[in-house]
Write the structure tokens for this entry.
Amino acid sequence: MRGALITIEGIDGAGKSTLAAGLVRAFRSLELLREPGGVELSERIRALVKDPALRVDPRAEALLYAAARAQLVAERVEPLLAAGRPVLLDRFVDSSLAYQGAGRALGVDAVRAVNAFATGGLVPDLTLLLALDPAQGRVRAAGRGEAPDRLEREADGFFARIGAAYAALAREEPGRWVVLDAAAPPDDVLAAARTAVDTALGGRA
């Protein structure tokens, strides 16, 4: 039986990493991978796209993310799914649709086409959206005590477009997306996510 692909999406500061860690503790069979990254080539691309010292054209940015994603899918995600292992991804294609398609105004459909080629048309079985007001997300991200990366330095309008795009994507595919209130207590967010993941895994922890 093919494994399930579960993804976590949301703006920076929404709590994706915290939720991912909680789900891995709850479901021992989950293989957690991050985007961009997860394999050596993709991690090198991650360093490029996040480097605040670099000027990266929006189209180049979208293609770099797609390239990192292509390598991760080929090297890790598809083999795991084919072997029946469920995979949990901290970001996937929907991040590019929101960040580059909407945030960078490249067009969601154009970015979707590039990523369909990059992933061989791979679509998650379940996507958990941590919905959070962009302003609150920026406050949380700033509170981590880390220097902002290249994307985190963008203006408020950039993140407002991303938040709106995520909401629209969730409305378009209600059967795949589960929207979680990221402003709720972390334990409540995790409990709701666990219910959705348990359903996606068919009760197999």
Summary: The first strand starts at residue 5 and ends at 9. Residues 5-200 form a domain with the Rossmann fold fold (CATH 3.40.50.300). The CA atoms of residues 5 and 125 lie 5 Å apart. The radius of gyration is 16 Å.
